[in-house]
Amino acid sequence: MNLNATLIAQIVVFMILWWFTMKFVWPPITKALDERATKIADGLAAADKAKSELASANQRVQQELAQSREDIAKRIADAEKRGNTLVEDAKSRAAAEAAKIVADAKAEADQLVVRAREALREQVATLAVKGAEQILQREVSPQVHADLLSRLKTEL
């Protein structure tokens, strides 16, 4: 066998294998590598975008929480004001009711005093008539002396 012919045959076979590899094997491999590199780049870009969106979302959440806290504080303050207003209204109504009850009680007491005075006047007038009867030893008629008895009542 000839060494030159073997070497040339091997070079031809190598060139055919190289051509076959470059034509049919290498493009799918480079295409797969390029697609993978694109996917990795897209994934990194998506991760960066998600990271920035997460930071933005966290910032919005913090703003919402701050807003909610302010709203809650305002509502609590309003509720306390309403509560104080209701307590003050209840106190003023209770004071008015107490004053009314006291006034009614005073009026009733005044009426009782007037009635008691009237009853006492009647009793004094009756006692005066009986006393006069005993002094005069005769009966004094209340119908006849009604004018005298009414003057006596008013004087008492």
From TrEMBL:
Record's GO cellular component terms: endomembrane system; plasma membrane; proton-transporting ATP synthase complex
Keywords: ATP synthesis, Cell membrane, CF(0), Coiled coil, Hydrogen ion transport, Hydrolase, Ion transport, Membrane, Transmembrane, Transmembrane helix, Transport
CDD domains: ATP-synt_Fo_b
Classification via InterPro entries: ATP_synth_B-like_membr_sf, ATP_synth_b/b'su_bac/chlpt, ATP_synth_F0_bsu_bac, ATP_synthase_B_chain
One Pfam short name: ATP-synt_B
Keyword check for Ion transport: yes
Membrane-spanning parts: 6-26
Topology of the protein relative to the lipid bilayer: Single-pass membrane protein
Free-text function comment from the UniProt entry: Component of the F(0) channel, it forms part of the peripheral stalk, linking F(1) to F(0). The b'-subunit is a diverged and duplicated form of b found in plants and photosynthetic bacteria. F(1)F(0) ATP synthase produces ATP from ADP in the presence of a proton or sodium gradient. F-type ATPases consist of two structural domains, F(1) containing the extramembraneous catalytic core and F(0) containing the membrane proton channel, linked together by a central stalk and a peripheral stalk. During catalysis, ATP synthesis in the catalytic domain of F(1) is coupled via a rotary mechanism of the central stalk subunits to proton translocation.
Annotated protein name in UniProt: ATP synthase subunit b
Organism this protein belongs to: Aquabacterium soli
